[in-house]
Amino acid sequence: MKKALCFLLTVCLAAAALAVPSAAQEAADLRLAVASDLHYNVPGESLIRLTDDPIFWYANRRCAMEDESGFIIDEFLNQCAESRPDYVLIPGDLADNGRTVVQEHLDVAAKFRAFEAATGIPVFVIDGNHDLGENCAVTRKEFKEIYADFGYDLALETREEDCSYTANLGEKYRLIALDSCDPSVSTEDGMSAALVRWVKTQADRAKADGRYPVLMMHHNLLEHMPIQRLINRNFIVRFHNTTAELFADWGIRTVFTGHEHCCDTAVFTSALGNKIYDFADTALTMYPLTYRMISYTDNEITYESKTVDKIDTDALTAQVAGYTPEQIDLMNRGLNEYAKGFLKAGFRYRMVLSLSMEKMGIKESDVYYPLVYKAVTLLTDELDMPLYGENSVSTIAAKYGVTLPQTDYKTPWDLAGELLANHYRGSETCTPESDEVRLLLRTVAVLLREENQALSFASLRDAADALGGALPPVKALCDVVFDDISSVEYFTTALLAPFLYEFAFDADGVDDNAGTLEGYAVNNNRANAANRFKAVMNKLVLYFTMSFRLLAKAAGKLIGR
Length: 561
Fold this sequence. Notes:
The chain is of the alpha/beta class. Helices cover 46% and strands 12% of the residues.
């Protein structure tokens, strides 16, 4: 009997040992919760109707849930109180009108103060472009005073010139909170040689103290869409590749940013093989209402996105009048899905208000101005047209022998809003072969063909080349989407390719929302450097090939004169 009991006890102990992960797997040295761009607004007394949308008629052009923002922040802090990270990091834009409305900052600081008192979990903040301005009601000095208890009280060093500081994170890591904002111009980044040198000093000191440097700033360090510095230059620091090269070689492996309002994880490899990851966070109070949880060990960095999917709607309606029973019911069923509908309605409102040649940076002197103007006007006029059924886009398509993929989308607006939500959500699921991409490009091409039957195909092709149609990715996309390619299809693909590569595709090999990366103690520099060299050589071959083709084309035109 004793032998049998001993045998059973041994089996139970062995099973328990197998069920429990090793110490290296379970014990994180550091756990962080990161939420950016809170964009808190003091709730209004009542909702304001802005559009004719049957549900989201108060959706604004920023697509931000302003009146709900405080309650979303409350729920985020409630979730942090339950999950118990070691620290909470906020990479800027704590307030939406923070440059002028001091009360917004005071309210956010009060929420953080109550959270720290209840949980003992420190909150670290840095300013964003919405938070302060030297000629505004809230300056750098006032910002540091209001948020004195949230990073600055634990700072090892604070820069007098701006809001930057450093602080220890646990036993192995050190936070470098970097003020990347221009002190006066909200739309500019404030990176400078002096600030970069300061980062170098702090990274060196962290390593001298046996700590790994972790960076937090508002502006993106890496591109989170193709040629971001050209398209949205105010969202990424100037000389971003050079800065990333330096930061990576100084031992900084993780950077937490916001500003772009997308959930995207990008990687850069220096010439020496050092990798740096930029975790861009979406705005907490916009769809998809997400924040990140990150865990560190010497060998691994694991991360995942978490969602705020509920708020206290009783408290919301007690403070803000005007919500309909249907709106509250939808929020209670799932706040995230409600936020998605709000995003789509706000996107439509914004596009109708502000889509113009000037906003797109296209001048009348540009060769493709007339065609793009006509295309954009057509898009805004026809986006309400049903995709299927009588008097629909599919009816027009049939005239030209074009078949639209069958989907659940009702109108082109519905499709465009879904692609936008796809970008903000991260881990974009579309591919060139997907129904969404084929439907969008074929729809636009059909409408262009309908409106421009007498247009010169040669002029369309020249405009497409000017828009980048000669680039291999654009040509490849065109080949996948269209069965028969004419100048109209060619022009359509060149016109919309930047939109698609921004909002639909993500092929950098790093999952945006969840994954495991090499930790600070892992050194794969030799392999990393070899892969970077190969990628650079491939780009050089591509550029030389393109240059040769352009020269040959120009020479052909000269000879033909």
